Amino acid sequence: MTAPSVTAAAPAAPALPAAPPAPSRPALDWRIRFAALSLIWGFSFLLIKVGTDGYAPFQVTLGRLLSGTAVLAVAMVVRRERLPRTARTWGHLAVAAFFLNALPFSLFAFAEQTIPSTLAGICNATSPLWGMALSLVALSEDRPTRRRVAGLGLGFLGVLTVLGAWQGFSGLDFSGTAMALLASLSYPVGWIYVRRTLAGSGSSTLALTGSQLFVGTVQIALVTPVFTSAPDGFPLLPTLAVVALGALGTGLAVLMQYGLVTEVGPTTAQMVTYFIPVIATAAGVAVLGEQLNWNTPVGALIVLAGAFLTQSRTRTRRTAPRTSSLRGLSR
User: Fold this and answer.
1) How far apart are CA 207 and CA 198, in angstroms?
2) Model confidence over 233-280: pLDDT tens digits?
3) CA distances to 20, 44, 84, 310, 317 from 147, in Å
4) 182: closest CA among 248, 99, 90, 262?
């Protein structure tokens, strides 16, 4: 949304430009923007659900990426950002776009054809868990601690609770749930790849993000005609949902997160991750009338508690601050 979302496995992006001597204060307090970002990403799963009522999953993803790319393109023109210059950078961006945009966006769209948006939002919350598990293998600086290992185990216990494992997963659409979990796994794979390949590329965060979205749009544009036929029409509500999903959830939200990380730092900005499944669940129940069994919210709280523990860091060693780069494209 998801998301992806700000997690421990998020990339150490190229450093943000140094702040000017007297930066202008944003018109809106960061807490208001934080709340708006949480709402936008939380409602993304509802918008995906509405979009798939009128369009094929690949078409939802294509419309989402087109709208999001348009927003970031305007931002890049206004800020006079330059596109990456080297073929090597564009090659890395193609891989990042696949794992952070094309693949997870499509998987969530396919998943929500058969599972509720509430379940998709909760599956998205497992990204920090996947990220921690992968980073222990792929990133030498991420060392396991008892707390983080406990958080990983607790988080996956929460997943089993959400899925109703003690009932033999009865009533659960296995394929849809598996696609949502695979989408959540795709985000940290992409984050780790970006962290290892694009740090120090010389391009700004906004330039890399906008370029990545453009490449992801091209990837989906090539695939969509092969697996789908042209829609018979453009139904109003699904069309508005897809445009809002891209312009707000994939475009504007990235700019908002970019500003939050610059103003209050990545540690505070990443807390938005824990509000997304709560808002997604509330939206699915209140707006779409989706049914909610007791184990879904209980399991979601356990997942979030585990994810929180996996983000904990020891304070005995100072580390260089991390900035947010392409992670905001996970929702």
Assistant:
1) 12
2) 999 999 999 999 999 999 999 999 888 888 887 767 777 888 888 899
3) 39, 31, 40, 7, 16
4) 99
